[in-house]
Amino acid sequence: MQGYNVAVVGATGVVGTEMIKVLEETKFPVAKLLPLASERSAGSRIEYNGENVKVELLTEESFKGIHIALFSAGSSVSEKYAPIAAASGAVVIDNTSFFRMDPNVPLVVPEVNAHDVRKHQGIIANPNCSTAQMVLPLLPIHEHFKIKRVVVSTYQATSGAGKEAMDEMLNQTISIVNGNGPTKPKKFTKQIAFNVIPHIDSFLENGFTKEEMKMTNETKKIFGDDSIEVVANCVRVPAFIGHSEALNIETEKPFDIEKVRELIAGVPNVRVMDDVATNTYPTPADCVETNDTLVGRIRRDFSVPNGIALFCVSNNLRKGAAFNAVQIAFELVNQELI
After folding, report:
1. Has 287 been annotated as catalytic?
2. Do both 183 and 42 map to the same domain?
3. How many domains is the chain partitioned into structurally?
4. What is the pLDDT along the chain (338 residues), one digit of tens a residue?
5. Which end of the chain is more exposed for a tag (fewer CB within 10 A), N or C?
6. Is the dihedral of CA 103, 73, 209, 311 positive or negative?
7. Residues 162 and 295 in one domain
8. Catalytic residue among 120, 129, 142, 287
């Protein structure tokens, strides 16, 4: 397998750092790694495969000779530089929300719709972190029993809002434990330490947040099926890493719940942890060191004729971002699209 020149835009951020780790861990065939960042971080150095690599300043000239460009530096950066990178000959894999609902840009979770990679016109979108993990257990259920409706409640870690959000939770926690009360919220609208906040991203006219509507719209696009109804309630919780989701799924066809458990366990990069007799079920602490999406509490939802309830957990920096992006890069290589 030949080597590829890979740029990482936002290389010093929480997700960019994780992207570089995943490139190394998965042994992606990198000929040259080009970490890119803003003036604030340019000139610093990162470790990659035992080498000390300098972070370069992101400019319009950065992408000459680059084969794959992983973007995770915010929507405004992707809006400006992703088309420039694509025009320079790179395939962009963008982790922001900017291109996700563009009809000309495939939105890809490789376990579900790797075939859509072939439709790219220079840019491929990575889905929202909560959507990426949710569609994995949904995949075999939809294939075998046709999903009508999904009600999902998320419990999302602070790392989904970046390093400053993680620091805010830590500092508030320390302040409260020391008897000084919480520090003033800056990254969040409310105190996050010892609290939960039912508010992620901005509110829309319909009363939902952008985060919640992302889950609705992205799920339809990934499955290529507008008939799936998804309603979400997204909540920020005081965890550092790992998004959790409680799913209630209604299907058109009847099912055997043991068959459902078996089908979910057969999805690549999914691990079923489901034995209530031994208190075996996933929590955010279980997913920190893995790329797998963990699924448990699989049971029949008796409130509807064909209902399934389950709980899933995933590392939002990995399957929700960096790992999924590198998986897409592998698809480009394996499908000989680059």
Report:
1. no
2. no
3. 2
4. 579 999 999 999 999 999 999 999 999 999 999 999 999 999 999 999 999 999 999 999 999 999 999 999 999 999 999 999 999 999 999 999 999 999 999 999 999 999 999 999 999 999 999 999 999 999 999 999 999 999 999 999 999 999 999 999 999 999 999 999 999 999 999 999 999 999 999 999 999 999 999 999 999 999 999 999 999 999 999 999 999 999 999 999 999 999 999 999 999 999 999 999 999 999 999 999 999 999 999 999 999 999 999 999 999 999 999 999 999 999 999 999 98
5. N
6. positive
7. yes
8. 129
- Say if residue 99 is in the same domain as residue 22: yes
277 lies in which domain range? 131-316
Q: Which amino acid is at 297?
A: R
Q: 258 and 152, same structural domain?
A: yes
Q: Is residue 62 within 8 Å of 34, Cβ to Cβ?
A: yes
pTM: 0.95
Domain at 261, CATH number:
3.30.360.10
- The active-site residue, picked from 120, 234, 243, 287, is 243
Token representation of residue 137:
């257990």
Give yes or no: 234 in active site: no
The owner of tokens 């894999």 is 93
Q: What are the b/e assignments for 163-177, b being 16+ CB within 10 Å?
A: eebbebbeebbeeee
Residues 172 and 48 both lie in one domain: no
Q: Which residues contact 257 (CB under 8 A, 6 or more apart)?
A: 298, 299, 300, 308
195-233 burial: b if 16+ Cβ within 10 Å, else e: eebeebbeeeeeebbebbbbbbbbbbbbbeeeebebebb
**Domain check: are 145 and 272 in the same one?**
yes
**The CATH number of the domain where 330 resides is what?**
3.40.50.720
Q: How far is CA 270 from CA 157, 180, 208, 217, 243, in A?
A: 20, 43, 29, 23, 15
Task: Mark whether 119 and 198 lie in a shared domain.
Answer: no
